[in-house]
Amino acid sequence: MAGKVLILGSGPSVLAARDWAILPFDYIVAINNAWAVRPEWTHHIHPEDFPPERRPTDIGPKQKVITAADYVEVQNRYGGFVYAGGTMAFTAAYWALGALRPDKIAFLGCDMVYPATGNTHFYGTGTADPLRDDISLRSLPAKARRFQALAARQGCVSVNLSTELSVLPYPRLAIDALNRAPSADLGQPDLVDRALRQEETAGYFVPSGRYWLEQDRFDPSVIDTIDSAWLKAFEI
């Protein structure tokens, strides 16, 4: 299956989507509170601890809620949460890549940049995933490159529709330029292979997805070495 996926996060930039007259996407995956941005979302994805009162209640016949029961198995196909990054932005991206098999994934509101003052989320301020003391969040740019490389190997292009400062290093596009997206960037294939081999050697895989229950067996310096390998795979 091929198509275009829009992933909506809760960053302030996501409000740009409210001004779009046309949504040229086959699927819209809304993370956590982002379902409130556009009523046309097709999938709402949230972690187990997302408060029930903040979840959508009016769910249409063409809409589906994605929970850990759905996304853990898919993310495990791509190496698990420790290597992929334990933020819902990356979780949603890997789930979409594996479950929907798109040829383009566009991100909006997934910038993962949190200013000291002003709004951190489109609804005001909130708790930011990347500010947690979490073994999977050593280098967000590295996690972004990892996703880009694995998506590219499936023929999927990663792009960023945000105009704000962003962790995501993907090509920036306006909504009306989506069909002019560049080809998928594979990085340097030999270095991508090296990073994957380092992951396999480390063996930091938790089938349940609840990696935080096993954090004591993970060496941060090993993860930092792997993250560095992913960044090097995209150096020019």
Descriptive keywords:
single chain, 236 residues, alpha/beta, 6-stranded parallel β-sheet, 6 strands, 11% strand, globular
Element order: H for helix, E for strand: EEEEHHHEHEHH
Q: Radius of gyration over alpha carbons?
A: 17 Å
As a percent range, the share of strand residues is 5-15%
Helix content: 25-40%
Low-confidence parts, pLDDT < 50 over ≥5 residues? Answer: none
Q: What is the number of helices?
A: 6
Shape verdict: globular
Instruction: Work out the number of β strands.
Output: 6
The main sheet comes to:
6 strands, parallel
Strand order in the largest sheet:
4-3-2-1-5-6
Q: What topology emerges from the helices and strands here?
A:
Blueprint lengths: L3 E5 L18 E5 L11 E3 L18 E3 L1 H10 L3 H4 L3 H13 L3 E5 L31 H14 L3 E4 L28 H14 L17 H13 L4
Parallel strand pairs: 1-2, 1-5, 2-3, 3-4, 5-6
Helix pairs in contact: 1-3, 3-4, 4-6, 5-6
Molecular structure report:
The chain starts with a strand and ends with a helix. The model has no long low-confidence stretch (mean pLDDT 91). The longest helix is centred in the middle third of the chain and has 14 residues, at 140-153. Helix 4 (140-153) links the parallel strand 5 (104-108) and strand 6 (157-160). It has 236 residues and is α/β, with parallel strands linked by helices. 41% of the residues are buried. It has a six-stranded parallel β-sheet with strand order 4-3-2-1-5-6. Helix content is 29%, strand content 11%. Helix 5 (189-202) runs antiparallel to helix 6.
